[in-house]
Every structure is written in C-alpha cells, then in structure tokens.
Amino acid sequence: MLSLTRRPSETIQIVTSDGLIELTISNIKKNQAQIAIEAPKAIKILRSEVDMPASGFGFLNFLSNK
Fold this sequence. Notes:
The chain is mostly beta strands and 66 residues long.
C-alpha cells in the first residue's frame, strides 16, 4: 500500500489502461477529507462501505472473490 500526504487542492494521478484517474483533495475538516475524483466513464468508482450485490460490484464482493 502506498500512503501519501496531500494538502487541500493537491492531486494524485493514477494512470490506467482505461485512462487517467485524478484524485484532488478538495477540503479537510477535523477527521474528514473531501476528495474529488475525475476518471473515464469506463472506470467504476466505489466506496468501500457500500456493497452493491445486485451489480456484482462492491468492496465486500471483491474481497469475497479473492
């Protein structure tokens, strides 16, 4: 796992075969960070606390298939 420190308005870029994913730290308050994500439409963006069994996607389904 890579751990990075970012300040508000700083970005992290991830290059994939489907295109560029850009994460921008938009705001930090106490123990929460707001993150803006720009990615190609072909890339699904999922939150780990949300499991979507009907679609077959979701963090919990991902873990159970490993």
